[in-house]
Design goal:
Elements (H helix, E strand, L loop, with lengths): L1 E5 L10 H10 L7 H11 L6 E8 L5 E7 L3 H15 L5 H7 L9 E7 L6 H7 L5 E10 L4 E10 L7 H24 L5 H14 L5 H11 L4 H8 L3 H15 L4 H21 L5
Helix pairs in contact: 1-2, 3-5, 7-11, 8-10, 9-10
Length: about 280
């Protein structure tokens, strides 16, 4: 596995005007294939890639598949994205990079990560997300878009084409700032009204009760998303009774007794922050 950090202003590539127009037009599109399809088209003019996915990592939740496209098996890419999000994302080396690089909102760090089939130690992850549709390598563009939110744009190579060449990887590194910027803008447009809510919950919960354990925070975030006890247990691969235990501990630390009171605590904190901001003197 290899990775490179890329400055937001780096890159001096000639990009096809038609591909760029389609890429811009896909930003904020409700069609879940539009953005990944436009990115796939832009890259395939220079590098042979077969699938593209755009994933969103939000705090301690399971990641979300924002967009996916393929030149041959569209439904399989969505299916594998779901399997990855449910069962395998914690085994991905991208998680190490997400936690390694802090958020920088003035000049976000763009990271290009290269991972081949041989780099994956976990046999189940390797079989489910790579071998099942003949993927031999992935190059990902990773960018932090919020305090606890990161996006990855992933390009997958089919076994018939073999591994990426060094020239292929260098082209993707050069294109990375554009791809990262488009992914970030798409996320910010928040087509489905989810991103803003989840980001606010992540940040407010961390400030409201920083003493929550990682597991307690995972459970509370999912409760705020509206997930049932059974669904939370399924996602975290624990017993429903264990979910209830974590919920009780978290509620005790936060000082609430129900989901309704939890929402009220978060909203009350936001209201207090707004009141404080309104009370600040205005410069003459």
């Amino acid at each position: 596995m290899q990775h490179w950090t890329v400055g937001s202003s780096e890159g001096d590539l000639a990009v096809n005007v038609g591909a760029t127009v389609r890429l811009i037009g896909a930003l904020g599109a409700k069609d879940s294939t539009a953005l990944a399809g436009a990115m796939l088209e832009a890259v395939r003019r220079h590098v042979q890639v077969h699938h593209c996915s755009v994933m969103c990592f939000e705090g301690d939740r399971n990641p979300r598949l924002l967009s996916a496209a393929s030149v041959q098996c569209q439904w399989q890419v969505f299916n594998i994205g779901s399997v990855y999000s449910h069962d395998h994302y914690l085994k991905d080396d991208l998680q190490r990079l997400i936690h390694r690089y802090p958020a920088s909102f003035e000049s976000p760090t763009v990271i290009v990560h290269r991972q081949s089939l041989a780099d994956i130690d976990d046999a189940d992850y390797r079989a489910a997300c790579y071998q099942s549709i003949g993927i031999v390598e992935r190059v990902s563009v990773l960018i932090r878009v919020g305090r606890s939110q990161s996006l990855s744009v992933n390009f997958y190579r089919d076994q018939a084409a073999g591994l990426y060449s060094d020239a292929d990887v260098q082209y993707l590194i050069g294109l990375a700032p554009l791809l990262a910027s488009c992914a970030g803008r798409h996320y910010a447009l928040d087509t489905h009204g989810v991103s803003k809510f989840r980001g606010a919950v992540n940040d407010e919960l961390a400030d409201l009760c920083p003493c929550l354990t990682a597991r307690e925070r995972e459970v509370v975030q999912r409760i705020l998303d509206g997930a049932t006890t059974e669904r939370i247990a399924d996602e975290l691969k624990i017993r429903p009774t264990t979910v209830i235990t974590y919920r009780a501990r978290a509620y005790d630390k936060i000082g609430v007794n129900s989901r309704r009171e939890l929402f009220a605590a978060l909203l009350g904190r936001q209201g207090g922050m707004r009141d404080e901001a309104d009370a600040l003197p205005v410069a003459a």
